[in-house]
Write a structure and sequence with these properties.
Elements lengths: L7 H22 L9 H33 L1
Helix pairs in contact: 1-2
Length: 72
């Protein structure tokens, strides 16, 4: 049994934040050079994908709840 329901939007938002942090962490450690503007498109793109995933998951959950309530 799951403790909570799966939230794909939050998963994508967290993965985006970790990716940006890893890029700038590697830059700070001197492993590579990351331009300063890199965080903006990655963050906005990741948050857009997270919003779309959350919207799609909400639609699936809502449709599933609606069909389960009509079966009874």
């Amino acid at each position: 049994m799951l403790r909570h329901e799966f939230r794909p939007g939050r998963l994508l938002a967290g993965a985006t934040a970790l990716t940006v942090a890893a890029l700038y962490g590697g830059d700070a450690a001197g492993a590579w050079h990351t331009p300063w503007w890199t965080a903006l498109p990655l963050t906005f793109g990741g948050l857009t994908l997270a919003g779309l995933a959350a919207w799609a998951a909400y639609g699936v959950r809502r449709r599933g709840a609606r069909s389960a309530s009509s079966d009874q």
